[in-house]
Amino acid sequence: MTSTKKHVYKTTHEDDSDTLLSPCFKINSDVALKENPTTGEEYLLKVMKERENYSTVTKCNKDFSKFAQNQSCFVKELPHAKAPDNLKPTIEWQNIQVADFSDVRMYVSRLLLKKSLWPSDVRKLDLDPNNIIAWKNLFERDPKLSYVLGLHNAMLDRGLEILIEILDGVKPGSTINHKTGQWIYAFLACTRQPLLSDTTSILRSLARKCGEIRSHLNPEDESSITAAVPLNIFICLVSRYFRQYDLAD
């Protein structure tokens, strides 16, 4: 005897080679199919009927090989330059930097949660994010938390990008100047988490750029140990605080 019940089916997997359909919901036979369902059963019946128009297994019939090749430029990264042994920081030193940075981040987080605690000189930056000259003029000033606190993600990312471009001007054998280092630290302290994909890419670019600058220091020169400190700090923070562990020393 044929059942008059209508069913909505669910998929069950008995094994890797067999897929069975078993009843999930029963729908009364007197439920009519309507273009605009007004009850739960009418809606389920409409979904069931629409489902009959599709095959159980859908396969992609497009060739994405060219697309994948074009995308390689977005995931390919330059190799991270490793430090000479005498310029490489110890894990103990790195742990101290991460702990100190965590304290700064906690302070910034408290300020962001309670604006009444903000310094009196905090003001919104009226800056075109694409105006590189304006950014560089800003970075000529002495860095203050009041310049960075409250900037949204896009502005923080853009500021870091400009700072990385400034690092392109560091001559082989030289290092980050103190003011630029302070600005970078301030932007890192205010960078929001969880990280957006764009932010992660920028942070990784910062660590690789610092590694590149460090690789041009003369390991035989005693002054190189001091010159490597700011570079080591930023590589450490990106790799160990922001969890880009493959870039860690």
Automatic annotation (TrEMBL):
InterPro entries (alphabetical): GEMIN2, Gemin2/Brr1
Protein's cellular compartments = Cytoplasm
Q: Which Gene3D superfamilies match?
A: 1.20.58.1070
Q: What is its main location?
A: cytoplasm
What are the GO cellular component annotations?
SMN complex; spliceosomal complex
A biological process (GO) of this protein is: spliceosomal snRNP assembly
Q: Which UniProt keywords apply?
A: Cytoplasm, mRNA processing, mRNA splicing
What family is this? Belongs to the gemin-2 family.
The free-text function statement in the UniProt record for this protein reads: The SMN complex catalyzes the assembly of small nuclear ribonucleoproteins (snRNPs), the building blocks of the spliceosome, and thereby plays an important role in the splicing of cellular pre-mRNAs.
This protein's assembly is summarised as:
Part of the core SMN complex.
| Name of the featured protein | Gem-associated protein 2
What are the leading ranks of the lineage?
A: Eukaryota, Metazoa, Ecdysozoa, Arthropoda, Hexapoda
What gene is this protein translated from? LOC113401983
